[in-house]
Structure formats: C-alpha cells, structure tokens
Inverse folding.
C-alpha cells in the first residue's frame, strides 16, 4: 500500500542483499548521530542524573507541568468549541445564496486564514490588557485560536458540503425545502459528520498553537516548563519533558483521527471521504496534519494529499 | 494619518517584514533540502532509513514550533553553547532559521511523500512492463508525476512557513514583525487598531499571491487521470 509499491518491485535475492547492506549502514549512521548528540550533552554536563530527576519529580509535576497542562487544555478546549461555532456560522455564510453575505464571510475567512496566529494573540492580549481585562493573556490565546481555526473549520464546512453528492440537495429541494432549509437540515449535518476526523486533526493544531501563549506570558505547559528550568537550572530537561507530553497527546489525537476516518470510509463509503476531503493544510503552526491517510479530494488552496484509494483530482 | 505614517517609518515596519522574508527564504531552502532527504528515506526500501524518517516526522509534526524555538535559544545556544555567529543578532537569526527548518522539514517530507502517493500503481507496472529498470522508471515515469502532485501541499507548507516566521520572537529575534508590532503597540497604544491592521494586511499581501500561484500551478500541471 505504501510508496514502495510504486517505486519498488518485490525484492529478489540480489536486492535483498543490497537492502540488508543499506540497513546496516543506515542503522550505523542513525546510531552515530545519536551518539554525537549524547556526547555533546555529556560534555556539557547535561546528562547529570540530578538535572533529569528534578525535571520529573513530584514537585515539578505538582507545581509546574500539571497546572500548565490544565491551562493548555483549558485554552485549547474553549478554542476548539469557539472555532466550531465560528466555522459553522461563516462556513454556512459562504454557501449563502446572497452575494453580500457570501462576500463578507469569504473575506473574513480568508483574512483570518492569512494572518499569523501570533500576531492576533499579541494584538488581543494587549488590547484586552489596555481595556483592563483580567486574564488578558488567556483570552488573547483563546480569541486568536478561535479566529484562525474557525476560519479553517469554515473551509472544512464549505468543502464538506461541496463534497456531498448533488443528489442530496436535489432530493431536499424536490420535497419542497428551500435552499436554506436544505443546507441546514440536510447538507450541513452530513458534512459535519464527514468532517469529524478533520476536526480532530484540527485539535492537534490548536494544541500546538496554544504553546504560542508562552510568548504572551500565558502560563501554559511550555511557559511553566521554562520557569521550572529557569529555577532549577535544567531548562533542557524541562523542555524535553514538555515536548514529550505534547508529542504523546498529539500523536494520540492523530491516531484517533486516522481511526475515525477509516471507520467513516467503511460506513459512509465514498461520500464520507470526499466530504472530509479538505485537509486544512494552510495551517499556521500547523500545516495541519498534512498526511492523514483520509485526505482526498480537495478544493481551493487546501492541501491535496491524496492516498492511493482516492488520488487527488483537480478538475 | 501623517502622524501614523511617521510611526510606521520610525519603527521600520518594512524592515521588520524584510527580516521575516529572509527568515522564510532561508528556512524554505533548508527545510526543502532536509525534507527531501527525509522523503527519500521514507520511500526507500531500506527499513532502518524508513524508521528514521518516520520517527523524525512523528516527533516534529506533533511538537509545537514554539518549543523548538525556545530550545534553540535556551537549550542549543544557552546550554550547549551552539553558536553560529559572533554577532548576537545574527546568531539568533540563524538559530531561528534552523528551528524553523527542522520543524517544517517534517511537513515538506510529508508533502513530497503525498506527491509520490498520487501516482497510481499502474504507472509503475506499465513502466516495468516496457522494460524500464528501477532508476529509469523512477526518473522518467514516477518522479515527474510525483513532483506535479506535490506542488499544492508544498505551497501550503510555504504559506505556513511564512506565517510561522513570526514565532522567531520566541527565539529572541527582536526585529521581526510580531516583536516590532508588540513594541509599537506598547508605546503607541492609541493607534492599536491601525498597527494591527498594518501588519495583518502585510501578511495577507505576502501570503495570498503564493496561495493563488500554487493553486493555479497545481491545476495547470496536474496529471489528469
């Protein structure tokens, strides 16, 4: 299934010998790079066990990682809910039959997709702080994430509706629904189910971008790890722990998205995968998950990562 | 209006954008090189290289860019004494470039690999059946189609990279746009909206043509199947 099937035949005896040789050389090179890094770390005294112990002991968890993690989750959860509401409103708005509504929603979505999340965070943080809002850095993080990811979700909604077979709308119209009713009660609900995997992938983007909050002094996981490291003199170790936490959570979410899209392809067949097609590639912090296996047909400047079963088509 | 233009000149907004463009240019070059090597690893038939490539992608795709940038300054430079230039600011600039490249290389790798994945298996079978061996088949049949399939995802990575150069703020690059915007707002909060929209529009102007260009390129160069 993977790329080898295009590029390589099943290996014969000679190719197998060459692959074995390549394997040995490759393993030696990878091990060599790892050894170099470890030597450098040891040389600077970074492998000292006390440094690592202080980065993972109970106090570090209780006072730094856990509260930071909770703040990260709080911001990300609020942001993904807000982004869904924003995305639904503007995604449906882009499908409106009124030219004015369509243009306004389109402009808003394209604007927020093009502006870096960090710029929005800094702006809303300082704006709210000037207005005397408490927790201005928290709201700065949340609002910026809602606007950017909401714009991405709006594109997901739009492409999800476009990906539905035309017969869905025709059927709705023929039983007497108006275009708006057809959108609301027939097309968008189906598109929402179909875009579930893409939404979960978007959650990975939200979690990663929430770490930008460290720059505007929101006390999330990265910021707390940095403070732990500054206090204990083990910044490298503290950052490593934070990085591992992020990787584990995001890896789990990516796997979940893969599973969802696989089961969806089974149940809803072609409709589901096509509707979930747009991969929110233009992600900031993000580039979204540019290689989820379920990404297929795409529309506009989303990413087009087609897999073998559903090669990308540009019509 | 005149006063606002003076502020824009005083804080050298254009210069700030130029720093981000330079960051994006060098990071694009480096990440394209590194990402291509990783993609080669992942599509090679050699198990250990495949493993190394996918481990790299898994790690860096799931890690926030901000951690990498903080690591470049506080870890690689602060603790491991990795120095790329004797000049303070130049040093931070290149540390930021490396951080950006390391992160985006994972996405470049996936973009190229997805390009290879758009080539149907029948193309390879046809190439073999007319007697092409591995290298000619790859050079003449598979890779040309793969590159054309990879244009759109690579364009998306480039757009994300340009926007992500603002995260260089976390690597102490003080002359790039997000840091300059913060300073401007702190000193001239009476112009906060104008300042934000100046920078925001700047990015819209930078990013939109690239999106349009790669979309139209990927359409016109698409292999119709």
């Amino acid at each position: 299934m993977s790329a080898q099937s295009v590029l390589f035949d099943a290996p014969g005896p000679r190719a197998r010998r060459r692959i074995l040789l390549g394997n040995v050389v490759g393993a030696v090179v990878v091990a060599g790079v790892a050894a170099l890094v470890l030597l450098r770390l040891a040389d600077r005294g970074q492998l000292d066990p006390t440094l690592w112990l202080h980065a993972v002991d109970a106090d570090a968890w209780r006072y730094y990682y856990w509260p930071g993690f909770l703040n990260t989750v709080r911001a990300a959860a609020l942001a993904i809910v807000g982004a869904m509401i924003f995305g639904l409103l503007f995604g449906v708005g882009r499908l409106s039959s009124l030219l004015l509504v369509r243009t306004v929603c389109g402009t808003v979505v394209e604007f927020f997709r093009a502006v870096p999340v960090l710029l929005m965070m800094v702006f809303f943080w300082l704006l709210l702080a000037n207005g005397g809002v408490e927790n201005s850095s928290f709201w700065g993080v949340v609002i910026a994430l809602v606007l950017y990811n909401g714009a991405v979700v709006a594109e997901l909604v739009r492409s999800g509706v476009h990906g539905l077979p035309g017969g869905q709308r025709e059927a709705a119209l023929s039983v007497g629904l108006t275009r708006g009713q057809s959108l609301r009660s027939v097309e968008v609900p189906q598109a929402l189910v179909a875009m579930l995997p893409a939404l979960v992938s978007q959650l990975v983007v939200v979690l990663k971008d929430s770490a930008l909050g460290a720059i505007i002094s929101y006390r999330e996981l990265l910021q707390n790890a940095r403070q732990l490291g500054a206090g204990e003199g083990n910044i490298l170790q503290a950052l490593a722990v934070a990085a591992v936490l992020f990787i584990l959570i995001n890896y789990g979410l990516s796997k979940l998205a893969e599973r969802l899209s696989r089961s969806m392809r089974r149940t809803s067949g072609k409709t589901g995968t096509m509707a979930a097609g747009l991969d929110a590639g233009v992600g900031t912090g993000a580039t979204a998950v540019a290689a989820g296996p379920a990404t297929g047909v795409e529309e506009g400047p989303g990413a087009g990562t087609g897999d073998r079963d559903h090669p990308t088509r540009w019509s | 209006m005149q006063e606002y233009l003076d502020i824009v000149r005083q804080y050298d907004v254009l210069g700030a954008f130029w720093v981000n463009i330079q960051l994006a240019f060098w990071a694009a070059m480096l990440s394209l090189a590194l990402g291509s090597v990783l993609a080669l690893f992942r599509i090679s038939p050699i198990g250990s290289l495949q493993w190394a490539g996918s481990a790299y992608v898994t790690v860096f795709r799931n890690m926030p860019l901000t951690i990498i940038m903080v690591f470049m300054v506080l870890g690689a430079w602060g603790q491991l004494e990795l120095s790329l230039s004797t000049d303070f600011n130049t040093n931070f600039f290149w540390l930021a470039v490396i951080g950006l490249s390391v992160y985006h290389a994972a996405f470049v790798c996936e973009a190229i690999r997805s390009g290879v994945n758009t080539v149907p298996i029948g193309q390879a079978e046809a190439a073999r059946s007319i007697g092409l061996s591995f290298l000619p088949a790859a050079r003449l049949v598979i890779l040309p189609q793969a590159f054309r399939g990879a244009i759109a995802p690579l364009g998306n990575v480039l757009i994300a990279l340009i926007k992500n150069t603002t995260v260089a703020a976390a690597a102490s690059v003080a002359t790039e746009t997000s840091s300059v915007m913060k300073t401007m707002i702190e000193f001239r909060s009476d112009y906060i909206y104008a300042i934000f929209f100046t920078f925001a529009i700047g990015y819209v102007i930078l990013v939109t043509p690239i999106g349009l260009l790669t979309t139209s390129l990927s359409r016109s160069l698409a292999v119709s199947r």
